[in-house]
Amino acid sequence: MKEKLEIILKAIDEKKGEDILIYAFSQLNPSVDKVVIASGSNVRQTFAIADNVRDRLAEAGMRINHMEGNRDSRWILIDADEIIVHIFEQKERNVYHLEKLYADLPVSRYDV
User: In terms of CB atoms within 10 Å, which of 31, 56, 65, 100 comes out highest?
Assistant: First the structure.
């Protein structure tokens, strides 16, 4: 799981994803270990980040279960088994503010 998380975080960073947060989620749902939230500055970048996550995992021989969203989406969700990834266009992230929902969970920030 640690290797998968590192691949996801690097893939987000490669496409200049911003404000990357990693939540320890297993206390709420034992089948999900981590939830990653990141932002892109626009819809095009948001999709590029999600696409890169999918591609980098595939290169490592790992598959995602499902990706919700497309090139026109301002919020893309990737289900990678024990890791869930939310990639938001920044304005959309401010609307849903999942950080408030997950406020009681342990969180770390990804900084290169």
Answer: 56
Segments of the chain assigned E as strands? 18-24, 34-40, 66-68, 75-80, 83-89, 107-109
28: its two tokens: 């709420």
- Report H helices in the chain: 2-14, 43-59, 90-96, 98-101
Coil vs helix vs strand at 18: strand
SS3 content of the chain, % helix, strand, coil (to 5): 35, 30, 35
Pair 4, 57: CB distance under 8 Å: yes
Cα–Cα distance, 110 to 72 (Å, whole number): 26
